[in-house]
Amino acid sequence: MPKTTKEDILIVALHLFARDGYEAVSVSQIAGELGMTKGALYRHYESKRDIFDHIVKRMEQGDGEQAEEYDMPADKKENEPEQYEEISTDNFVEYSKSMFSYWTENDFASSFRKMLTLEQFRNEEMQALYQQYLVSGPAGYVKDLFKSMGVVEADKKATMFYSIMFFYYSLYDGAKDKTRIKEQFEKSISGLI
Question: Which residues form the HTH tetR-type domain (predicted)?
Fold first, then answer.
């Protein structure tokens, strides 16, 4: 599928937000990076906030697609309990490897993660999104999955599991040998459950 101007705007804006912070980036700066006028940009999005809302919407969609690809629940346990009962350890491990790649190697997801990491200290909304996508949201999801899978000490192991994943995100970002970091992550999670 060819990129559209709307898509280009989202990607450029997200890269700028991840580098400079949401508040520091202006619509003029986004338009300038794309070689367009503000007026041309406004034909696609109403405001910087509209661009941001579309970025978040795209992340929600991407998360759902990742879950669907690996037959994993896309929603909280209370909203789709039957899907939590059908999870195998192998599916979970493969899905976890996929999510690690998604959050580190997919340009959009990786930039979103970096933007939230930077912005979490600047305003409450960004802190809430950071928690939802990168901390308490995924940690709670893993805990619910582990409980459904019958993992002994599910709470403790879910915390350990997600701590490992989060640690390796940080290692990966600064690593020269990213393949080695990814392999270390995969070994670390395979022996945990």
Answer: 3-63
